[in-house]
Amino acid sequence: MNRSLLTRLGLYAAIAAPSMLLVATDQPFLIQVAIGTLISAILALAWDILSRTGQVSLGHAAFFGIGGYGSALLTPVLGPVLGWAAGILLCGLVAVLLGAVTLRLRRLYFTIATLSFSLSIQVLILVTPGLTGGSTGIMPPVIAGGSPPLQLLFVTGCLVVAAGVSDVFLGRRFRPAFFMIRNNPELAAASGVPVTRLKILAFAVSGMVAGLAGSCYCGLYGYVIPDDVFTTNWNVLPLAVTVLGGMDTTLGPIVGAVVLRLLEELARQAVGGVGYQVVYGAVIILFIVGLPEGLAGLGRVVLRRFRPPGEGTRIKARLAS
Amino acid sequence: MTTAVIQAVLLALSMAALYAAVAAGLTLTVGVTRIINFAHGEFVMLGAFLTYWLYTRFGLSPWFGMAASGVALAILSAAVYRGFLARVLKQDEHNQLLATLGLSILILNLAIIAWSPDPRVMQAPPLLPTLNLGGVTVPGNNIAVALVGLILFVAMYAIRNYTRYGTQMRFASDDPTLAAHAGINVDRVFELSFVIGGAAAGVSGGLVALVLYVQPTIGVDLVIRAFAIIALGGLGNIPGALIGSAILALTEGLTSTFVPQGGSWGFGIAFVILLLVLVVRPSGLFGKQAHP
Amino acid sequence: MTGVRVRGCTVAFGGLRAIDDLTLDIPANAVTALIGPNGSGKSTFVNMVSGQIPPRGGQVLLDTDAVTGLRPDRIVHKGLARTYQVPRVPKELTIDEVISVPLLYARSDRPLPGGARSAADLARYCGLRPEVTTRCGRLSVSDLRRLEIARALACRPRVLLLDESMAGLSLEDTDQVIGLVRDIHASGVTVVVIEHVMRIIARLCSHAIVLNQGRLLAEGPPPQVLTMASVREAYLGKGFTL
């Protein structure tokens, strides 16, 4: 227990260290890129938490947007701390409702329903200009007085929180039960697992973490229109980042976000501003064919190959033979 | 007022035929392979561009363009299936989803690089004469779209229900393992369903060029609608897709026409309807309902 | 005392009544065989009692607690556990993790059988030889069967339904599982086995219940039940092995 806690703290420190380094070097462009990368990592972690229960969402832009809009609109009323808390709780609430509605939906229907949900939410924003500014957007209060290095530190803190949440759901209490729900919900129920409650819990937590990502994003520049946060890009990105990095892990989505962003920046240099996303498509296809378990899967294979067989296992092998 | 309503309804119905053409090919493929093929939208887009180029560069009639697009996209679908998607069939659902999304992103951005993101309009003379019914006019191209869309739709239905391959498709989608034991070449059947779906996408691309604009992102807009339509009607249910298309096109068309500023969000209403339908019927209006 | 009572229950799929107005008692603290020809409703019976497919009418009682219409996980809490004939466990989970799921979620003050205290104890109790850190994807069929029994025992059941836990096992493995079932029974658990092989039933069970077409055909001590004319008739030509 203590050892695993130490490992985890080490991991969080390792996640935070590059950001600290960047803040110290004071490179404005790199800091901007890092902020964007970490926000997509948080969103991907949110997506992964939900997918561990077998719910493959294509609608996380909804929570990203609701979180951003929620905290932006509530901060002037409730203050920054309560405003963000309320905005994120709102995401949890919406996620519980969506979770309850989509509970009975099978595979493809679930995915299409989540996608439709994110499009519907965008419409809701457009038809309520009095409350949400409609298509003209809103002006959320900026984080950290608009100072990019401080914003990076703040977003890094949020990522560590998201990583901690992800780790809780990879712990003994949730990981086996979640995987059992994903693989065989009847077996999970026959093992005493309240399947419905856990699926909705996963939805709520996932929605809130995605809302956190959205709140960070909206607080960067002080100006947001619906197309910024509700675009399908935010629906696809967490799926791509997580599958490329490695599902069912905390490190996978973070590494995936970094790698994908790196490739994106390289592509922007090579291809230019228009159509650079062609690299996204190519990378995704190459990964699906070559590394279907993502970078984490590759890591596991490499570890297995280079780790010498432990003393203990060898003795047992002899006993068995 | 009444003429305006009739006019809007007729135009919406011609859009419904277009949507039905896109959705029929998609639901045939999805119903058989159980893969959400996002690249279907890009296939439609490629069909639209091909029809457009054939007309503007070579002066070839859009009738010919549609047929050529159908053939070209059928060939491309076969290549994509053999080279890529066949490998993905055995992977997990999220990988399949990401695979077709990746394919869609790739084709879309290649198109943007090659042809720029700007919309184009194919100014071909109408394929059919304009219909005039006591003040209500329906442009000839809309009639052509409605006709071809319906023919395509009936063709998909007939292939699935009245041919030997159709029987094999239904069998292979119900239980691939059992179908393989029964001597059906499941891989071949899957490929065929992709090829037929691709051909339908190509032809519907031609329809898009006739009544909408030609633009790389048009496929994304259409495929999202097509998914809503096939979920509404029930996955793999071809007549269901027709009803779904009518519901979507009518809501969208009437909202855009009669609600102030409805144009920007009219199509969103359709997704609200879809969510409501799925709450009551988790497998769509006409899909097979699973045991509780 | 009664382990499970079923009172006038019906389960229908479309027009087919898989369980048809069934009333029966399963005695407590016994090993009961639930038998019947293919399609007689045995599996539906297990699904019904465990809450997976609730009956359309009637009542299911666990001793004196009504469990009709409860969710499957609630029924597990009440003390009824079942195994699956074909165990589909997530292949990325370890033996330890699979057994830990009911240990964590099916909380009750009933003791685990055989004085077990942990997932590893239960694995050993059920005769699982591989390390508890072994992933399920690497287990043999007979180990998966044992794991499935261990998982069900981790629910701390009063009543345990074993759905063909010995199907397809070697003679040696079958003997071991028979021994295990006897131990489980000796620790105070009411056991119901669904079995095709009459030799196993004759060795293991003190009571037999025969279903046919969703109805109770016969019940009593296995040697008598198995020689009844009506039972033989129901089985005729269905691979009856004695």
From TrEMBL, chain A:
Question: Where in the cell is the protein located?
Answer: Cell membrane
Its primary localisation, in coarse terms, equals: membrane
List the residue ranges forming a coiled coil, or say none: none
Topological category with respect to the lipid bilayer: Multi-pass membrane protein
User: Transmembrane segments in this chain: where?
Assistant: 5-23, 29-50, 57-75, 81-101, 108-131, 151-170, 200-224, 236-263, 270-291
InterPro entries found in the cross-reference section: ABC_transp_permease, LivM-like
Q: What is this protein called?
A: Branched-chain amino acid ABC transporter permease
Tagged with keyword Amino-acid biosynthesis: no
Domain of life (superkingdom)? Bacteria
The terms under GO molecular function for this entry are: branched-chain amino acid transmembrane transporter activity
A cellular component term from Gene Ontology for this protein is:
plasma membrane
Tell whether Cytoplasm is among the UniProt keywords: no
Keyword terms: Cell membrane, Membrane, Transmembrane, Transmembrane helix
> Can you name the source organism?
Alsobacter soli
From TrEMBL, chain B:
GO BP: any one term = amino acid transport
Q: Principal localization?
A: membrane
Name of the molecule in the record: Branched-chain amino acid ABC transporter permease
- Write out the entry's keywords from A to Z: Amino-acid transport, Cell membrane, Membrane, Transmembrane, Transmembrane helix, Transport
Q: What is the topology of this protein in the membrane according to its UniProt annotation?
A: Multi-pass membrane protein
Q: Record's Pfam families?
A: BPD_transp_2
Q: Which family does it belong to?
A: Belongs to the binding-protein-dependent transport system permease family. LivHM subfamily.
Say which species the protein is native to.
Alsobacter soli
- The coiled-coil segments of this chain are none
State a single Gene Ontology molecular function: transmembrane transporter activity
List the top taxonomic levels of the source: Bacteria, Pseudomonadati, Pseudomonadota, Alphaproteobacteria, Hyphomicrobiales
Q: Which GO terms describe its cellular component?
A: plasma membrane
Matching InterPro entries: ABC_transp_permease, BCAA_transport_permease
Mark the transmembrane ranges.
Answer: 6-28, 35-55, 61-85, 97-116, 136-159, 192-214, 226-250, 262-280
Cell compartments where the protein resides: Cell membrane
TrEMBL record, chain C:
Q: Does the keyword Ribonucleoprotein apply?
A: no
User: What GO molecular function annotations does the UniProt record carry, in alphabetical order?
Assistant: ATP binding; ATP hydrolysis activity; L-isoleucine transmembrane transporter activity; L-phenylalanine transmembrane transporter activity; L-valine transmembrane transporter activity
Q: Which InterPro entries match?
A: AAA+_ATPase, ABC_AA/LPS_Transport, ABC_transporter-like_ATP-bd, BCA_ABC_TP_C, P-loop_NTPase
Q: Which residues form the ABC transporter domain?
A: 4-238
- One Pfam family from the UniProt entry? BCA_ABC_TP_C
| GO CC terms of this entry | plasma membrane
Q: Which UniProt keywords apply?
A: ATP-binding, Nucleotide-binding, Transport
Q: Which domain of life is it from?
A: Bacteria
One GO BP on record is: L-isoleucine import across plasma membrane
**Listed SUPFAM superfamilies:** P-loop containing nucleoside triphosphate hydrolases
**How is this protein named in the record?**
ABC transporter ATP-binding protein
